[in-house]
Amino acid sequence: MKNKVLVGTRKGLLVLEKADNKWKITGDHFMGIPVNMVFENEYNGDWWVALDHGHWGNKLQRSADHGETWEEIPAPVYPEGTFVKEDVPASLRYIWAFSPVTSEDGDQLWIGTEPGGLFKREPDGSMSFVESLWNHPSRPDHWFGGGRDYAGIHSIVVDPRDEDHIYLGVSVAGVFESNDGGSSWTGKNNGLRAEFLPNPDAEYGHDPHLLVHCRSSPDVLWQQNHCGIFRSADAGTTWQDISDKKGQANFGFAIAADAENDQRAWVVPAISDEVRMAIDKRLCVCRTDDGGKSWNTFRNGLPQEYCFDIVYRHALIAQGSEVFFGTTTGNLFYSSDAGENWESISNYLPMVYGLAFAS
């Protein structure tokens, strides 16, 4: 079990550490700079952060010594002559996802960006642009921005059994799968629903807010979607709507899947896209233990009066029975019993963009 948590916020990176069975903030980095993505590479222990400078643009930083020192790494650059659409040249607007390419070389990474480009960081440190995805026939007419200007790759899921088997979550476009290390891509959206489109059952144009899998059962995929919560038990071939139509678990941004139990996942629900705040102004966490057939709602220790918090897509994480989430109003919560009871780590942070377990 990892004993640190990286917290990316609107005003810098915080580090939580567990000591004497208590989590507390023990360090900070990049103060005053938005840290929109945080990530520890499980294969070599490197920490990665994506910085979203208001003036200098997007930057990458890596630490090989758990935050003692940092090194700036060249950010992805879209090739000259690449266009989002006919009159809009493609340029990096946001870094939204990281994942290792292979367990054999920790310096190789997949990097997902807005406006929808996937990059591969090579062993020599260079960045290659994955043209096969950019040239997918669905992109010109069926990829578009949701909450942001253009489509963005926010989820990269690599099959631990086969590193050439990759899933992407793209907002707004859908789920894509590659079985050949990124040389070709197929849409995996059968069973999803896009209520905002003229045809809700369209092949492309879906809005997965986050895509995750069960580490021990990689064919079990989960997504918190703009139009509900969906689960696939057949490697994305079909999706089932597992939203709680009579309860709380429906619209939201974040979802966390249990690494060992493919029946268990957590969400932090919100009022739908028109409002985007805690339902009934009362914060709760929902957990399913039966693959979405039913949901339990937990509130103990969470604010229940005039709460306007929501949780962004990368700001909910779980390992074993430990669950963390951070909110848009700077609250950071922790549960030691799989989400049934909560305690506050801090109520005075900047907006929380993302969390990641670290060593």
Summarize the structure.
By secondary structure, the chain is mostly beta strands. Helix content is 2%, strand content 42%.
Structure description:
The protein has 359 residues and is mainly β. Helices cover 2% and strands 42% of the residues. The protein has two helices and 30 strands. It has helices at residues 131-134, 139-142; strands at residues 4-9, 12-19, 22-29, 35-40, 47-53, 57-63, 71-73, 83-85, 88-89, 94-100, 109-114, 118-121, 127-129, 152-158, 166-171, 174-178, 186-187, 208-214, 217-225, 228-232, 240-241, 255-257, 265-267, 285-288, 296-298, 316-319, 322-326, 332-335, 343-346, 352-358. The strands form eight sheets. A four-stranded antiparallel beta sheet has the order 3-2-1-30, with no helix packed on it. The chain has a four-stranded antiparallel beta sheet with strand order 4-5-6-7, with no helix packed on it. The longest helix has 4 residues, at 131-134. The N and C termini lie close together (8 Å). 46% of the residues are buried. The mean pLDDT is 96.
Termini separation (Å)? 8 Å
Helical proportion, percent range? under 10%
Give me the side-by-side strand order of the main sheet. Answer: 3-2-1-30
Q: Which structural class do the helices and strands define? A: mainly beta
Radius of gyration: 19 Å
List the defining traits of the structure above.
mainly beta, 359 residues, 4-stranded antiparallel sheet, single chain
